[in-house]
């Protein structure tokens, strides 16, 4: 079973940004670890009020608890005979424990085709031919009422499963499905919905979504700030600008508790930049705990595929540049330290550690040190949990 988990670092601010994560684990320990490892995900919500006509259709089996049946002609506004579910048409429905962790009822994803389904709750026996369906949607809050959009695809509003598209971020709405039998008995199933961009593990993405992410990331890494904002808008932040922020002499991004809040904040800025390039992109996360099983063959992880992040076992004859799509990523040169005066530079004027002696004009990466190939694989869940426990204990 796949477990979705909320980012544990800076959780309050991340919830405000509307992030939902998907992680692969079932233990509380693993969820804590993945929460600390995950970076960020944006949320988007859209809502508006709609009504619909009725139609009969076969209803799928969903989940709820039993309740006595209603007499003919009675309107049941708290029915557990029928349940509503929602999912992105390209992915499975989010797990119940994910929704519970985020204190959410339903999640729809923005600018995506979402499938809303009303069906018989688990354990219920329903004759689909006896019921017609009517959907209504009401926006919640002033912002949603003024700015949100909610569209039924192909104007179909009267089927048990309908496709909807909604946006923008951080709005909510109430979804209601009214089902009426041939004898006039009416049942109402109602659930609150939030539209959020869901962050999934890199390997769980569809091929098209993963490719869209890498294309946007490449644009951020190879486009300067001025050009990017002129082309993509004010939300764009270049790789050089992010590097300067990370190397800012006024902040200490590592070796203290600031690490756990500063990096998610920086990830949010990167995510906004990616979404300025392609508004349908959500930053995935990499669950390297999955790759712990590779041991000393860690460089064989799929994330180092040339069509993904590129190779890590690089060669001196190619300047230790990764093979693949990121082979052409330039480093940020600021010789006179005028463009980024607050950032650390090395002796050759490149942004980065002042101890760095690299004069390569391109991004480099290596799986060896002094020609000794690294043999230690990725940490497993137990290792990372112990690391954080000891780190946090040192501040008690």
Give the secondary structure arrangement, pairings included.
Blueprint (H helix, E strand, L loop, with lengths): L10 H7 L1 E3 L6 H10 L37 E2 L5 E7 L7 H6 L4 E3 L5 E7 L10 E10 L1 H6 L1 E4 L8 E7 L4 E10 L4 E10 L1 E3 L7 H16 L2 H8 L6 H8 L12 H19 L90 E2 L2 E2 L7 H13 L3
Parallel strand pairs: 1-11, 2-10, 4-10
Antiparallel strand pairs: 3-5, 5-8, 6-9, 7-8, 9-10, 12-13
3D structure, described in words:
The chain has 396 residues and is an alpha/beta fold. The chain folds into two domains: 75-195, Sandwich (Immunoglobulin-like), CATH 2.60.40; 204-378, no CATH class. 23% of the residues lie in helices and 18% in strands. The chain contains nine helices and 13 strands. It has helices at residues 11-17, 28-37, 96-101, 142-147, 207-222, 225-232, 239-246, 259-277, 381-393; strands spanning 19-21, 75-76, 82-88, 106-108, 114-120, 131-140, 149-152, 161-167, 172-181, 186-195, 197-199, 368-369, 372-373. Strands 2, 4, 6, 9 and 10 form a five-stranded mixed beta sheet that branches. The longest helix is centred in the C-terminal third of the chain and has 19 residues, at 259-277.
């Amino acid at each position: 079973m796949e477990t979705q988990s909320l980012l544990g670092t800076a959780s309050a601010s991340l919830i405000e940004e509307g992030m939902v994560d998907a992680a692969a684990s079932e233990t509380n320990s693993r969820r804590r670890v993945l929460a600390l490892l995950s970076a960020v995900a944006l949320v988007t919500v859209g809502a508006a009020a709609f009504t619909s006509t009725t139609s009969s259709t076969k209803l799928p089996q969903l989940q709820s608890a039993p309740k006595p049946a209603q007499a003919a002609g009675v309107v049941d506004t708290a029915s557990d005979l029928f349940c509503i579910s929602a999912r992105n048409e390209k992915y499975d429905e989010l797990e119940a424990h994910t929704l519970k962790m985020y204190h959410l009822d339903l999640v729809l994803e923005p600018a995506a085709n979402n499938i809303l389904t009303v069906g018989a709750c688990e354990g219920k026996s329903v004759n689909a031919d006896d019921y017609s369906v009517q959907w209504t949607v009401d926006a919640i809050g002033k912002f949603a009422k003024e700015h949100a959009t909610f569209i039924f695809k192909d104007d179909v509003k009267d089927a048990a499963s309908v496709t909807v598209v909604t946006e923008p971020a951080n709005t909510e709405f109430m979804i209601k499905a009214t089902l009426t039998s041939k004898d006039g008995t009416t049942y109402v199933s109602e659930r609150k919905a939030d539209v959020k961009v869901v962050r999934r593990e890199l390997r769980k993405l569809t091929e098209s979504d993963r490719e869209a992410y890498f294309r946007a990331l490449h644009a951020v890494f190879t486009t300067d700030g001025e050009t990017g904002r002129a082309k993509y808008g004010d939300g764009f932040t270049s790789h050089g600008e992010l590097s300067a922020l990370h190397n800012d002499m006024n902040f200490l991004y590592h070796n203290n508790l600031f690490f756990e809040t500063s990096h998610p904040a920086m990830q949010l800025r990167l995510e906004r930049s990616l979404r300025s390039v392609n508004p349908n992109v959500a930053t995935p996360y990499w669950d390297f705990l999955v790759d712990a099983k590779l041991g000393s063959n860690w460089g064989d992880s799929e994330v180092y595929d040339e069509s993904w992040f590129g190779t890590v076992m690089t060669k001196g004859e190619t300047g230790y540049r990764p093979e693949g799509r990121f082979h052409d990523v330039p480093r940020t040169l600021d010789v006179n330290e005028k463009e980024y005066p607050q950032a650390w530079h090395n002796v050759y004027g490149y942004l980065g550690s002042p101890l760095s002696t690299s004069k390569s004009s391109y991004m480099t990466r290596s799986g060896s040190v002094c020609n000794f190939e690294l043999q230690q694989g990725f940490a497993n869940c137990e290792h990372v949990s112990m690391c954080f426990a000891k780190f946090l204990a040192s501040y008690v």
